Amino acid sequence: MTTTGEDHVTARGGPWWWGRRRSAVLDAGLAAVSALECGLEGVPFARDAGIPVAVGVLFGLLVGSVLLVRRHWPVAVVLVVIAITPAQMGFLMGLVGLYTLAASELPRRIIASLAGMSLVGTFIVTLVRVRQDMVRGELDLGDWFVPFASVTTSLGLTAPPVLLGLYVGARRRLMESLRERADSLERELQLLAERAEERAEWARNEERTRIAREMHDVVAHRVSLMVVHAAALQAVARKDPEKAVKNAALVGDMGRQALTELREMLGVLRSGGDGAGRGAGASVPLAAVGAAAAAAASRAVDEARGSGGGGVEGPGLSELDELVGQSAAAGMVVVLSVEGEDRSYAVEVEAAAYRVVQEALTNVHKHAPGAKTYVRLAHRASEIAMQVENEPPPEAGASARLPSGGNGLVGMRERVSALGGVFVSGPTDAGGFRVSAVIPAA
Prior knowledge:
Elements (H helix, E strand, L loop, with lengths): L4 H6 L10 H29 L3 H12 L9 H10 L7 H13 L4 H29 L8 H92 L4 H31 L14 H19 L15 H10 L4 E6 L7 H21 L5 E7 L3 E8 L17 H11 L3 E6 L5 E8 L2
Parallel strand pairs: 1-2
Antiparallel strand pairs: 2-3, 3-5, 4-5
């Protein structure tokens, strides 16, 4: 099992420059063996040099122990090896030093230079020693053996550790590169996961808002009319029983329509649309639920109004007369005026325009009952404009105001802004209230 680069760095726990304790133990063991070897080789060296044997052994011990710093100062180890080549000691230190040098992160020219110096030094020393042995008669071979032995010995002591060190260094660098790449990919995946979670949370919030807006626009209007009719029913119950019966029938019809629409919405939210995937226990995406809820609400409105759907996916501008008629039936004086040539728009544009007028009339029922209201619709070249303005309510209707959650204007603004339009609302100088919206036709 491999570790990432971050784990590799945090795993360092050795003393001084060693990354791990076992690396320090390995170098200490190699240094001890090298010191023992050089100490033994210091005996013939002391005899050849004419110095006390103890001095030669001590020199060998000191030189061999240099291998302890091979990881931190590989150049120094190789230079010491080159320096003691004439003494014919430190063969283990030479092999390990050249391997460590080649596996290090030093520039290639430095590695090649030191390896070449070690090769030349070993070649010269071997050449001289073999020739001396032949002169003394210890070796009885042809003249060809001197260069052959020198080349073979120098290459055998230099090439294998250098090639092995180059291979190990390249493999180590490759592993470090893979670790860094793994760390980078892990960070990127984590960042992508965080962004995906943020986008999912944003989508969930958007769909919650859209579902709440749909439910508010579809149900609040009818409930407001129901309350207005109920108040009128209470006022005329004793004076005009026939009118009271008519108002009671209207309240019942609107209540049934509101319950139908609400049942359609809650059924979609509970079942997840058409029910696909319920048997497998799959969860329906919230975006699909929101779209299905909006479609179900639109179908419910169409059915309640007796239109039968007609293939329309949502309320349209052709239903404004019926919408205004419902408010007029509740006792409101509504004047509808249309400017420009009537034409069809995209479904979402007509639905947004219808909802703006519907919610504006609902607000008049809630906050200004009995006030005269003007609904203006203008078909322009590249946009459609609508305005709903009411006069100040009569004093008698002030006590009949309905409770409000304050979400109507927010929902209208969100609908219009989502289509790139402009929404403005506020009180008029005469004491009434005006709602204006402009939506691009495309």
